[in-house]
Amino acid sequence: MEAPTSAPPVTEAPTSAPPVTEAPTSAPPVTEAPTSAPPVTEAPTSVPPVTEAPTSAPPVTEAPTSTPPVTIAPTPTPPVTIAPTSAPPVTEAPTSAPPVTEAPTSAPLATEAPTSAPPVTIAPTSAPATEVPTMAPVTEAPTQIVATPVVTPAPVPAPTPAPAPVSTLPASKWPTPTEVVQFAAAKVIAAGEVFDGGMKMYERSDVVCNDAKAIEKDDAVFVVLAGGMLKNAIIGGKHVVGAFCADNKCAFENVWWDDVCQAAVVINTGLGLTTVTGGGAKAAGSRVVLAQSGGSVTISGDFYMDECAALYESCSTCGPVKRQVVVDGVVSVNPTAELVRVNKNYKDEAEITKAKIVTAKADYKVCTHYNGGKEPTLVGSGVDGVLCRYTKAGVSVVSP
């Protein structure tokens, strides 16, 4: 009789049971009926006879789904030829039926070495073997035998990091210059010209910061004429003024002032609108934008300030000229002065619609009011109808 591809030959020794001609240590030999096991030729009350299949056991040549073999040992004793409950029979390979000679539920396979059992040719240590087969052919294991469930451990969630303190720069990281360019004289941007700095750093080769020196265009890195634009540039610390807007109507877009001296931007004369969109400034000891002339300034695009004095200062000693400023998107971290400074007697107007100030000062003043003149004097601060307009929803002051 030929065994199917998924079952071993009849005469094969199991991995953990003695060979065919040997009785296990706890069972008597085949021709002897021990006190706990029926004889070979006799079927005890609990074991079917050799030539007859009990109600729960199949005949010798048929492999039932759950019946013991022809010569069955009691449940605690392994039979002469052992096959696991999940192995296919000798003459028939059902998908889930045991072989013809079936062993108790705890016996290993006859023709297959499970992952935790020794190979077929090894005799068990508990009984001497009189015959050791050289090597039983190992057939393909049924899928239900070799399929060992793999328990995937649940991923351990990473610890939630503590919120980082407010650093020198929020989401828009301070840029790194691609190159450093030094001018021996101020670079002039003509009316209608757009100068794209390509994220290079620009500074003067012949000027150093001097806080006491009078503000002049000759000490600037850039001189922007009315209608000119400077964009995508980083201005280094070697200057007195970063950008000198000669006649108002200047535009600055994504310009970063690194280590501001007297001012990042000075609006010298003329009327009209000057815009500062995006970018940022560091370490402005006096102010970022100084408006000497009349006209308006709009600062927006989440302009970033790190340890700076006033974002906008209306000049108090430049004459009785009305000036206006709109702040719509600014982040100021660790400021050293108010956000906006205006002159009450010059009828200045400041409107702050969106600003975030990060400071440890409990009494931080967002807007201060001065009376301009030869000797400017502080006359008030905070919200004031027309002079300084903002709301708590638009302006937030938070601790670092």
In short:
With about 400 residues, the chain is an all-beta fold.
Explain the layout of strands and helices:
Layout (H helix, E strand, L loop, with lengths): L142 H4 L33 E4 L3 E3 L4 E11 L15 E5 L4 E7 L5 E5 L5 E7 L5 E5 L5 E5 L2 E3 L4 E5 L3 E12 L3 E5 L8 E11 L6 E4 L5 E10 L8 E5 L5 E5 L6 E2 L5 E4 L2
Parallel strand pairs: 1-3, 2-4, 3-5, 4-6, 5-7, 6-8, 7-9, 7-10, 8-11, 9-12, 10-12, 11-13, 12-14, 13-15, 14-16, 15-17, 16-19, 16-20
Antiparallel strand pairs: 17-18
Q: Helix count?
A: 1
Provide the domain count: 2
Biggest β-sheet strands, sense, barrel: 11 strands, parallel
Q: Please count the beta strands (DSSP E, at least 2 residues each).
A: 20
Order of helices and strands: HEEEEEEEEEEEEEEEEEEEE
Determine the CATH topology of the largest domain: Pectate Lyase C-like
Structural class: mainly beta
Specify Rg, calculated over alpha carbons: 47 Å
Instruction: Pick out the low-confidence regions.
Output: 1-152, 159-168
CATH H level, superfamily name of the largest domain: Single-stranded right-handed beta-helix, Pectin lyase-like
Oligomer: single chain
